[in-house]
Q: What sequence folds into this?
């Protein structure tokens, strides 16, 4: 029997967090994404500051949010990175067009792999008014409105100085 040795890992193992381990991006995706990222310039006035969180860690956090649909604040409960760091990096990457370039690279790769029949594709759309959009002046409500967001008295009457409490707040 030929016993093959398992392939050596190029990347260090991450701690096993059952929540986020399945959402880390693959080495293949990182190889496509990394060249698309903008070059970071240190804007600290003395050239120092906190060490920058690695782009790959931020990419793991960003894709975790995009895949799960969780709020950015929920990243603080994971071991990926801080929500503010991931969101700031996400905004920088969106401005740099990283995700559009990634999408274009994915379409190009799929076209090379399987082929896309561009002649067959069509795009259609229309922008019109809604047919039952309602009248310009809608019907008026028959309910009495509240004045200046004041609460209505429990008996349905109006506030007045003759009422108990004089229509004012009682001193505490």
A:
């Amino acid at each position: 029997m030929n016993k093959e040795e398992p392939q050596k890992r190029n990347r260090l193992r991450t701690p096993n967090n059952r929540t986020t381990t399945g959402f880390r991006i693959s080495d293949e995706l990182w190889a496509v994404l990394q060249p698309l990222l903008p070059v970071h310039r240190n804007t600290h006035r003395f050239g120092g500051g906190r060490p920058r969180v690695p782009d790959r860690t931020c990419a793991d956090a960003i894709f975790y949010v995009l895949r799960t649909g969780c709020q950015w604040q929920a990243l603080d409960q994971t071991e990926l990175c801080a929500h503010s760091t991931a969101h700031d990096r996400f905004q920088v990457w969106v401005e740099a067009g990283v995700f559009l370039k990634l999408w274009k690279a994915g379409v190009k790769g799929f076209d090379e792999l399987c082929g896309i029949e561009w002649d067959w594709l069509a795009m259609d759309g229309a922008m019109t008014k809604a047919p039952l959009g309602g009248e310009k002046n809608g019907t008026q409500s028959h309910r009495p409105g509240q004045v200046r967001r004041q609460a209505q008295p429990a008996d349905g009457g109006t506030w007045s100085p003759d009422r108990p409490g004089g229509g004012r707040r009682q001193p505490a």
Q: What stands out?
A: The chain has four helices and no strands.
